[in-house]
Amino acid sequence: MSENAANNNNIMEKNQICKDAIVSELQKKKVHLFYCLECEELARNIASESDHITLQSINWRSFADGFPNLFINNAHEIRGQHVAFLASFSSPAVIFEQISVIYLLPRLFVASFTLVLPFFPTGSFERMEEEGDVATAFTMARIVSNIPISRGGPTSVVIYDIHALQERFYFADQVLPLFETGIPLLTKRLQQLPETEKIIVAFPDDGAWKRFHKLLDHYPTVVCTKVREGDKRIVRLKEGNPAGCHVVIVDDLVQSGGTLIECQKVLAAHGAAKVSAYVTHGVFPKSSWERFTHKNNGSEEAFAYFWITDSCPLTVKSIGNKAPFEVLSLAGSIADALQI
Hints:
The chain is an alpha/beta fold and 340 residues long. 29% of the residues lie in helices and 26% in strands. The strands form three sheets. It has a seven-stranded mixed β-sheet with strand order 11-10-9-12-13-14-15, with helices on both faces. It is globular.
């Protein structure tokens, strides 16, 4: 083959790649994204990830008695359009007003409807240990499952790192749950750290190992476990050797943080050079995140980094840029999920 022919082939291949990219871009659907007040910053970040996402607004008002007085702006303009709602069920107090909007949007003759609920808040209450326990994960799944069908069919429900994958079966056929994960954000961040060959992933219990080990199998692992000693539950090292390594504890969520702190102590006692943590959902009720900040005595030596996502917007606003916290945004991942 002559040099000119080879150059022509290269040009043709590049042109085809450009054409394919243009076709792919044109095939992307345009999405109108509504959001609750808590999620405004995340919604704007999602919209900045794609020219195919347009932010829409809702008037979030209340009557004198405290019940919501809501108005969806541009309701006529979204007919025949793909519509999504970004929700945050951060407390029972805000769920009712958001559910009211979520139940109405699919009825406005939209082409399709997607609910983005980054954090499924009752996910850790998914089982009964004795008769009388209320599995509120099932209750929440039933509430979400009753979203009306739009013209395009069942609602897609995007959830990140739900506590237990079997909760998929709590949802009825009227919705299509799409379970995503924030772990790629963590792996990308770990690749930016020095001495990546010394990074080990630790799981605070067997549940976290089952949930995430396949997503992180390219890293050596350490597994901790909880054993009962009298009335106390003590964290022990079950398997693996953290000596001389940067150990990153991985879990789906954190509440008070007690387990993470005990796990850090065990890892440090077994020779870990430094310890960091990642959780997708930084719940931190009653500002429990404060016990991790570097202003507390001795905590500088506890956690080098503490990574969370912006699935819990109120936590993100509270934490700000306080060390050792870093926020890994779900915005790009959510923008991609809206194209599925």
